[in-house]
């Protein structure tokens, strides 16, 4: 069982740069990887050979079987990166700038800390491990103590930051202000360089909810986005990736969700990895196997917010109107955009469409995300739309609409 | 098989010939024969049409001018009459190939020429007939309707819906059509085609064929009926009663029908094992059908008289067996009206229901109108007139489009359903809902359902009028009211049944209604909503605020997002709501069933007919689309006690308490009063702040703040408006009824809880509506009546909850001055009544007491005032009684005891003990809670525990209580509440050992049943079958752009979580309702006026003691039944046989079901009778019926004997 779980059956790496080929070359031949211990030694050797930065023994990844056992013991439904190859690959994809001390790395739910150690070995200058499960905390804190400030460990569930309801908050649930203040990270301008890179695996439950909440926060510069353009490097299911990057014309998946993310971010698929390479906590084995029948890969996706997002008319305060506009338009994809526009303000639809150089009969599901942004900018300038009561109606719904 | 009796008819040869073409030999041969058959059929059809035309009465002029569409000018030319013909031809021909060729002429070039010749022939003939008959003809409307209806079923078949659903749809559709059109010839042709298509064939059953036979028999076409009999045989189906009744009806219609044919038919029937008597007892006859069938039979058996099987040897449930078999001492209450009066009321009610809507004065009309109001009213009425015109126009156009596309667009073909009423009636229905649109909009689904229901109701009333039902109801009702006005030993239902049996002629009252499938209702509704959204417009500058004039819609279809789901929403434009609000309509239009009935409701004598005279009502309210209840009820043989109870509650006459109503209206029309629960008018609402989000002078944070304020203000505004409208409706209806005596017809929900049908104004409503209701009948107070009034008053105040009855009485006597002052100067005096819990009822009670005290002899004072008593109090009582649980029973006062016991204090005490123990052990949280545990803290959790509150819910309840304690450290709330809920649960477990066990057993059984794919079902001790309507949701596309979640599809896969969690509370509710029904039956036989609000029972002050006695006796009687054993047996028999064995369930049966009950618990059950403490708790019944709001009594009081 052990061997099959940790074996990386194959990987679809989409990077075509020379670096990526190097990454793939560094993988072990399959036969050798059948034995865990041999993999381990091999891995360590090669890691040492490739990265001279490995200066601490305690960054040794540790016994794979031990890590595996601990991951399996986790009571929540989670996935872990146990395989050192995989961890290396992720570290590699994060690029050389992890050694840059200005970029903070957030690792969500490191678990036994395989990726944590790999990143540190790869030279991460500032790594924050946000672990939601107490059982992993101790070891991580132990590691923290042995290092010289490169690693900070916080008991925190990143994907549950800034809960909507109110009440007594107990770790791992916390507000982003507290997290960032504790870490001493200050707010940054939107156009500055990416201050934080978040690495992790999207939780299984309520993926859509988490991603929607993120993108709403992004547009309104709420939550973590007050601290600048935070970049995500997330593993998500292939299906989710498909929905995120759906193109106009795909009437099933091209929805507000996709449009908003595509307006807001550069989306890049860094890597595809089979599900088998991840270790699931024992609770979920059944659900996972059922869920990935159709898509048997996890995608490592980079979501980097565009620096110029707020440069032309869109501001965090009017972004909520854009959100609502896109959602109302794409609630149905097979209706004409002009009908929607005329609803907002009668007779203005054709004028707007001609300004956008779109045909009169264009369906909402056929309009590109950039066009929606442009449309919004035009509407925002137009007198007629500010007069429309629906405009006010939209405002009304912003607070919690759809979270 | 069955055709020989019809052989004499001439056309049969033709039919035979057609049949022979069914399997053509070769291709060429086929073609030749097809053409031949085509000729035959066309000729036949022409003959038919010529005779049909005479029957056709309903001329629809717009279609005459309509160019024919489908068969196109190439074939049929412009004559509208020829169109249905052309369409019909291929359908009647017995081949699929030829049926296609007519509709797609281009593909069949070879045949074209010949066909054209034929068609020309037809055309000329048609023209002839047209010329001769003039505009009297019905050019194809009905044909269209029917063919489209039949087609409609096709996609459904393909979706593999069950046969049952299919026939239901066809039946619904066809019965719709029969209302509008008489010339339904094409129906049969269409269905023949359907029968030929093998794939669909399996969905057809005899009943579907019967529908067509019926149509033919209306026209007296015996040959066609014969044809269908052949088809039946061909399809491998057996004719049933319906088939023979149609055949006989047709024979009865043809006065010159040969006796031999009838004899043959009867013989055939006998061969099929059906008796003539069955016809009369089991067929649902309409109009004159019954008489015609009888005529036909009497041709051969002149002496024949149907012998109806009576309900004589009825089996009653054991708990009420004596009630029905020994009734010498029964004194049913009679109504104090003359027959003449009741007759007049009946006429009024009938005309109201025939109109379907009632327009009444709004109570706001009495307000003086300002200039602006006048202006707005004028504007609104102009707008409405204009909208009526546009909608009518749009409706007609849309109808035309549907007519043309009916054959192409199979899926959402609504055409038959929009032909049921006059066009302008549809428009009225739409305008009615525009007027009532809530400010914040309405979800599309609800709106659509409303509109669809309204169309159905109206159609259904129409149908009854056409079927001559009205006359029959009138004649039965006029005999029925005889018994209401005098002493008898017959129950209303029994009398009604007798009368129905006497009035054999004419249509059958029960069983003519086919409710539409839920989807169809929604489709009709969305069609109308769509029309409204697209066509209702208003000028943007109508209020002078817009900067330019544009025609803008008043309704918008938008989406709101809930979690990740999107919900369609219809929102009105603010300009429109502004007008609506400023105008303050002086008239309100309601559906007729919203108004209480003006005459005693029709007793439920069968599950299909009762309550209103014409408005269709279900005896059991069900969730949208759920049909299993109906099926179960139909199968159930002994619902008489349940129906009698419903009838008893519905027969209580009411009147309005005018002094109280006037005070309330005066406050309502002034500024309202939040304190007194009279919603203030919108002029009192907070202004919605206005700001321009584009204004650069605002900071981002300021904008956010202002935005939030706007949102809050709007929310508040919407809430106020809906409260105000609700109160407006209630008060307006009450005001409309102010000088009338009226009745509330009742029906029940799926657990048997009984509700009045009129939704706004009824005795289940809020404090305000209850305060304006009085019994129409007055009774003297008697020796103890005044005391009861006083105790009732103290109960209403919510004070002295823990005192015994005497204590309450003493208290009332001590505040007599305040009481009298309240009665005399309600608004300007000391206002004692305003601090009561139920202030308006308290005020009404003060007035009644004042009047009684001041009358010369209070004992003789005639009181109309209802005094409330709480019935079975508490689900815990049922559990304790079921479990024969001594400690538990004592604490809920089922055992005799010196002092009233309070279960909540008991639990609190237990919890405190457990806490102290933990605190000693050093548990931090237990120490923090020192001295904080009170009765109040645990009360809500204890009382909801029987209704299935979970730990999660219980924790939330306790959290709320903890938050109310200011000094309690906020950080501990979560931990403390979690800790406390555990303690409460374990305390309850200790006290009510049996209760938990029973609950667990019920839950586990439900889980197992549901897991095995079944829905949990049981039968109450009164014989009411209950089924839990919780199924997994499924998305269903209703029309092209609407997608709804439907909970009740054909598969009905149970939702295990809901099935299991809801079973214990539902079961207890069903016991509760059974107890209420038993009490109501016995009160009725004792001559009492009795009504109930679930477990709060109302009667005259004079009869309170009698009612209390009955209530207790019936509780004992109910629990003397082996309730759990019966349940267990039922479940085992129902679910443990067959393929699914549930061995576990048997083993899970609680131990005391196996052992002797008395061994297990020592509760001497009969103790109850002597228990002084039972049931006298006044209960604050909130007007909300949801489970969590069940607000169960706190205080228990000694009975005065």
Automatic annotation (TrEMBL), chain A:
It comes from the Eukaryota. GO terms for cellular component: mitochondrial matrix. Residues 13-40 are annotated as: Disordered. It is found in: Mitochondrion. It is an enzyme of class 2 (transferase). GO terms for biological process: transcription initiation at mitochondrial promoter. Belongs to the class I-like SAM-binding methyltransferase superfamily. rRNA adenine N(6)-methyltransferase family. Keywords: Methyltransferase, Mitochondrion, RNA-binding, rRNA processing, S-adenosyl-L-methionine, Transcription, Transcription regulation, Transferase, Transit peptide. Its EC number is 2.1.1.-. The keyword Nucleotide-binding does not apply. Residues 14-40 have a biased composition (Polar residues). GO terms for molecular function: mitochondrial transcription factor activity; RNA binding; rRNA (adenine-N6,N6-)-dimethyltransferase activity. The lineage of its organism: Eukaryota, Metazoa, Chordata, Craniata, Vertebrata. Residues 86-307 form the Ribosomal RNA adenine methylase transferase N-terminal domain. The keyword S-adenosyl-L-methionine applies. This is rRNA adenine N(6)-methyltransferase.
TrEMBL record, chain B:
Residues 65-141 are annotated as: Disordered. It is an enzyme of class 2 (transferase). Residues 347-651 form the DNA-directed RNA polymerase N-terminal domain. Keywords: Coiled coil, DNA-directed RNA polymerase, Mitochondrion, Nucleotidyltransferase, Transcription, Transferase, Transit peptide. It catalyses: RNA(n) + a ribonucleoside 5'-triphosphate = RNA(n+1) + diphosphate. One of its GO terms (biological process) is mitochondrial transcription. GO terms for molecular function: DNA-directed RNA polymerase activity; mitochondrial promoter sequence-specific DNA binding. One of its GO terms (cellular component) is mitochondrial DNA-directed RNA polymerase complex. PPR repeats lie at residues 205-239. Pfam families: RNA_pol, RPOL_N. DNA-dependent RNA polymerase catalyzes the transcription of mitochondrial DNA into RNA using the four ribonucleoside triphosphates as substrates. Component of the mitochondrial transcription initiation complex, composed at least of TFB2M, TFAM and POLRMT that is required for basal transcription of mitochondrial DNA. In this complex, TFAM recruits POLRMT to a specific promoter whereas TFB2M induces structural changes in POLRMT to enable promoter opening and trapping of the DNA non-template strand. Has DNA primase activity. DNA-dependent RNA polymerase catalyzes the transcription of DNA into RNA using the four ribonucleoside triphosphates as substrates. Belongs to the phage and mitochondrial RNA polymerase family. Homodimer. Component of the mitochondrial transcription initiation complex, composed at least of TFB2M, TFAM and POLRMT. In this complex TFAM recruits POLRMT to the promoter whereas TFB2M induces structural changes in POLRMT to enable promoter opening and trapping of the DNA non-template strand. Upon metabolic stress, forms a complex composed of FOXO3, SIRT3 and mitochondrial RNA polymerase POLRMT; the complex is recruited to mtDNA in a SIRT3-dependent manner. Also forms a complex composed of FOXO3, SIRT3, TFAM and POLRMT. This is DNA-directed RNA polymerase. It comes from Neogobius melanostomus (round goby).
